Every structure is written in structure tokens, then in C-alpha cells.
Amino acid sequence: MDRRTIFFVSDQTGITAERLGQSLLTQFDEVKFKRVVLPFQNTLEKAEEAKEQINRSFQNEGMKPVVFCTFIDDAIRDVIKSSDCAFFDFFETFIGPLEKVLEQPSSHATGQSHGMVDDSSYKTRIDAVNFALKNDDGANLNHYDEADIILVGVSRSGKTPTCLYLALQFGINAANYPLTEEDLDLLMLPPVLKKQKKKLYGLTIDPYHLQRIRQERRPDSRYCALKQCIKEVDMAEDLLNLSQLPFLNTTTVSIEEISTTILQEMGLQRHLY
User: Fold this and answer.
1) 102-146 pLDDT, tens per residue?
2) The domains spanning 2-102 and 119-266 adopt the same CATH topology
3) 32/165 Cα distance (integer angstroms)
4) Could you give the CA distance from residue 164 to residue 112 in angstroms, rounded to a whole number?
5) Residue 23, phi then psi, degrees to nearest 5
6) What is the rounded distance in angstroms from the CA atom of residue 116 to the CA atom of residue 129?
7) What DSSP string runs through the chain?
């Protein structure tokens, strides 16, 4: 399998360059990538050091590394662009054409994508994350009226990471409640959830996959026994069906896909863009 070094270089966090570049790289299954992230390359001196690192990669490997960039400063961009690499700058590619279409010059300000430019949006994000943490795993049942969504499912079915992703990416107030053996034996939603039925969304998972996850958390316990996992998943799905709740199998679905599916199916309005 071919191997290629990829640099994600930016004058800020590098998150935009990494996300966009990674989206493109997923289309090349036959190439193995070595990824190097160089954030905060916001001076000419730092850019020269990054250029030297890129050039060393070319000298050591004999193949030009691929460089994905997001630079506003033309001088810094030119330094990186002059290195021995295959160069792709997302801002250079799109900002110019957008200025023509919108008939307005861009601000050429750095840090707009992931900085604290909009105080209200940043506060929304932080408040949503705090809400997810405070209302994780059924720890606090008193704030469900404030929730946009309440995820339900057996332990380790993906509820917590999904709640945090919804909070970070969309500013959604997401809580989650673990379906306990008592809930499952009764085959009945607990009263606190019945009152919030319109906000409920279920997550389920393949029991064999669940067993592997639980084995890492509590090795060789009843909690991770395959028989127990099969029982809990079967009963949870019965309860979700009986309660007529929408639910999704998370076994082979990414957090991004889970979250977007929930937004679409539940008609939730994102609070961040």
C-alpha cells in the first residue's frame, strides 16, 4: 500500500484544514497517510520552520508531501507554497471567487471559523456542553424540561458521545437516560420519561459489539457477558417499539451521522452554524 505524508497547516487551529482535507482523503482507500498538523503558523518565522519540516519530509521519503492549508495572510501562504509539496489552500481556492460572486471583499481576518468571534454563539456552545455533562446518564432528572432531546438506550450504546457532539456542533441541549434492568423488566418507560415522550429518541446497538465495548470497561463481569448484552438489547428494542419511539442502531454509524439523523428525524433546529 502506498504511503504519503499529509500536512495540515494553518495560521489558527488547523481544524478547518484538517476537516476539509480529511474529507477528501477518505476517497483514497489504497493510500496509507501519515498526518502532521501544524497549527498557529501565524508569523513568517514559523512559516519558514514549517517549510523546512515539509522539505525534510520530501527529502526523507522521496515523494512530495500533500499540504492542506487555510491562510489569510498572503505572505505566510507564499512561504508554505514555495516548499517542495503538493499545495492546496482552501481559502485561496474559494475566497477570491466568493468575493466576485458576493461583490464584496472579504475581511481577511484570521480565526473566524473557530475563534470566539461571536460571544453569543460561543456561550450557547459552552452552555450546551455543560447541560450535556450535568444531565448525562440519568444523573439529573430535574432539567428535562430544558432539554431539546433526550437519548435513551442501554449502557454503552453511544448516548454520551452523541449528546456531547450535538452540544459542541449544534448547541443542542441534549440529555440522556440509561434504560436499567428495572425499566426493561417492567417493559415500561419510567414516569420521568413519559412526561417528555416527544423529546425521546432511542439508540440501540448490536449485542456482540456491545459486549466488546463493555468488556473493555468492566472485564469479565456480568455487565459485559454476551448473554446479558443480548437480553438488554432485545428488551430495550421491545420497549422502544412498544412506546412507539424512533430509534437508531449505532453499531456501524459515526457520531456525525447519528447526530445528523437525530436532527432530521426529530425536526430539531440547530443553535449554531
Assistant:
1) 888 876 555 555 444 456 788 898 999 999 999 999 888 989 999
2) yes
3) 28
4) 23
5) -60, -40
6) 16
7) -EEEEEEEEESS-SHHHHHHHHHHHTT-TTEEEEEEEE----SHHHHHHHHHHHHHHHHHHSSPPEEEEE-S-HHHHHHHHTSSSEEEEHHHHHHHHHHHHHTS-----TTTTTSS--HHHHHHHHHHHHHHHHTGGGS--TTGGG-SEEEEESTTSSHHHHHHHHHHHH---EEEEE--HHHHHHTS--HHHHTTGGGEEEEE--HHHHHHHHHHHSTTSGGG-HHHHHHHHHHHHHHHHHTT--EEE-TT--HHHHHHHHHHHHTPPPS--
Indicate the fold that domain 119-266 takes in CATH. Answer: Rossmann fold (3.40.50)
How many angstroms separate the CA atoms of 10 and 39, rounded?
Answer: 5
Cα 223 to Cα 35, 203, 229, 237: the distances in Å are 37, 18, 8, 18
CA neighbor of 5 nearest in space, from 37, 33, 38, 39 = 33
Grid cell for residue 218: 468492566
CA gap 123, 56 in Å, rounded: 42
Kindly compute the dihedral angle of the four CA atoms of residues 115, 40, 86, 91, in this order, to the nearest 10 degrees. 30
CA distance 80 to 38: 11
Per residue in 149-192, pLDDT (tens digit) is 999 999 999 999 999 999 998 999 999 999 999 899 999 999 99
Fold of the domain spanning 2-102? Rossmann fold (3.40.50)
